[in-house]
């Protein structure tokens, strides 16, 4: 078998997503992803505002923030491992059961963070436990996206795959909106109350959200494409081994292409938040702007995904990457104003336009690189590794670049623009997936 093609299987003959079953599937993909990313992004917000002060007390503020961002990176490092583990079982046993397990793990870890004593109470054990729980979060979210995306994509008609797959992508920023608004509401408390107990409430709310998500997720059927493999020898193979030996080129190109979108997230929703607050911008105002930016990302994803079903994944993603390279320096200049309006315009350009346009087609783009028997593993590895390299280390790297430039931000803009151009080259090197059926036969 040619490693660039997939095995034959059936696809829906209807072009409509407006059926009762598809509405349930798309809702499950969106809501489940939103809840899991609420938990994951909640940690990122708290890392910018709280953890450096509570779990790394006694350090200079800049060092504490650096340490806090380092624990944030632990979750991103764990995401590819979670993608490999959950992807293996998702390709061998089915998408649905793995999705339920990932949601339970995420909810348990997030709730536990909300109950965690600080370093002032239990010393070095506190940051150690924080890292462990962040690791569990990373493993869980590593398995979430691939399954949520594939449940929608593998049920969808061929001509609507891009839009269907985007519901998992829209769930991420929707979860970020919810997380940011909840934290913003409690950040309006006096500092002593916010740092004392207010920051914990959003983490404890995760238990309620996970319960709602599970009620929705258990009603979704297994995908027909996976069921086609039930009696085939392909299910007895090791998906991870096949991905890295038969599809290494697709994996690497998918990772680098996806990094562009995640550098936007890491730079603008984590590092830039801390940067402008340090410049004196109002904390609650910054969080409210961040929530609006995430909502604009959802809108951008919606339109870009629909365009990808009409014009192809590659042209749409390339448009977003070129825009990102062109806007990198103007956005950084807006951050340096030290004003809320500057942060708002920069964030809206970066998240609403650049990230939304790139991220909209990305689910279908990366899923179409791999055959059904290893699609969960391959797509998850590409996506989660891109998130680790693109977002997990961006806050730390950006902080280092600012130090290297003597406090100026021009070096951040330069590296950011170059990353968009490298990702664009990788997109150009990949075949267009819009007109390739999931059996790998070009129409």
Automatic annotation (TrEMBL):
Coiled coil: none annotated. This is MFS family permease. InterPro entries: MFS, MFS_dom, MFS_trans_sf, Sugar_transporter_CS. It comes from Saccharopolyspora hordei. GO terms for molecular function: transmembrane transporter activity. The lineage of its organism: Bacteria, Bacillati, Actinomycetota, Actinomycetes, Pseudonocardiales. GO terms for cellular component: plasma membrane. The chain crosses the membrane at residues 25-51, 57-78, 98-116, 122-142, 163-185, 197-216, 251-274, 286-304, 316-335, 341-369, 381-403, 409-430. It is a multi-pass membrane protein. It is found in: Cell membrane. The keyword Transmembrane applies. Residues 25-431 form the Major facilitator superfamily (MFS) profile domain. Keywords: Cell membrane, Membrane, Transmembrane, Transmembrane helix, Transport. Pfam families: MFS_1. PROSITE patterns: MFS, SUGAR_TRANSPORT_1.
């Amino acid at each position: 078998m040619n490693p660039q093609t997939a095995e034959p299987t059936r696809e829906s003959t209807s072009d409509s997503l407006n059926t009762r079953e598809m509405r349930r599937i798309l809702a499950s993909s969106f809501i489940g992803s939103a809840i899991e990313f609420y938990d994951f992004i909640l940690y990122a917000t708290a890392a910018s505002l709280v953890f450096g002060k509570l779990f790394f007390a006694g350090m200079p503020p800049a060092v504490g923030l650096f340490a806090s961002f380092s624990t944030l990176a632990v979750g991103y490092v764990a995401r590819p491992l979670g993608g490999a583990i959950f992807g293996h079982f998702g390709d061998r046993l089915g998408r649905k059961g793995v999705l339920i397990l990932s949601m339970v793990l995420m909810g348990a870890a997030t709730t536990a963070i909300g109950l965690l004593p600080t370093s002032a109470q239990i010393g070095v054990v506190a940051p150690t436990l924080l890292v462990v729980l962040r690791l569990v979060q990373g493993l869980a979210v590593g398995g979430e996206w691939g399954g949520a995306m594939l449940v929608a994509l593998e049920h969808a008609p061929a001509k609507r795959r891009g839009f269907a797959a985007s519901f998992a992508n829209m769930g991420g920023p929707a979860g970020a909106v919810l997380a940011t608004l909840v934290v913003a509401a409690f950040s309006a408390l006096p500092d002593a109350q916010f740092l004392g107990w207010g920051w914990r409430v959003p983490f404890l709310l995760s238990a309620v959200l996970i319960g709602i998500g599970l009620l929705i997720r258990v009603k979704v059927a297994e995908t027909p494409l996976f069921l086609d493999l039930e009696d085939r020898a392909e299910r007895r193979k090791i998906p991870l081994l096949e991905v890295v030996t038969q599809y290494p080129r697709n994996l690497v190109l998918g990772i680098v292409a996806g990094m562009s979108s995640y550098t936007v997230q890491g730079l603008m929703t984590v590092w830039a938040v801390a940067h402008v607050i340090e410049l004196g911008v109002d904390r609650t105002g910054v969080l409210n702007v961040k929530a609006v930016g995430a909502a604009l990302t959802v809108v951008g994803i919606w339109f870009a995904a629909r365009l990808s079903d009409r014009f192809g994944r590659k042209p749409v993603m390339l448009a977003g990457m070129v825009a990102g390279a062109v806007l990198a320096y103007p956005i950084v200049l807006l951050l340096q104003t030290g004003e809320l309006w500057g942060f708002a315009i920069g964030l809206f350009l970066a998240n609403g336009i650049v990230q939304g346009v790139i991220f909209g087609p990305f689910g279908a783009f990366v899923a179409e690189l791999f055959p059904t028997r290893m699609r969960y593993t391959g797509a998850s590895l590409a996506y989660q590794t891109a998130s680790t390299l693109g977002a997990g280390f961006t806050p730390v790297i950006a902080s280092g670049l600012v130090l290297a430039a003597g406090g100026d931000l021009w070096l951040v803009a330069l590296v950011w623009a170059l990353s968009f151009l490298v990702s664009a080259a990788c997109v150009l090197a990949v075949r267009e997936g819009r007109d390739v059926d999931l059996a790998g036969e070009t129409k």
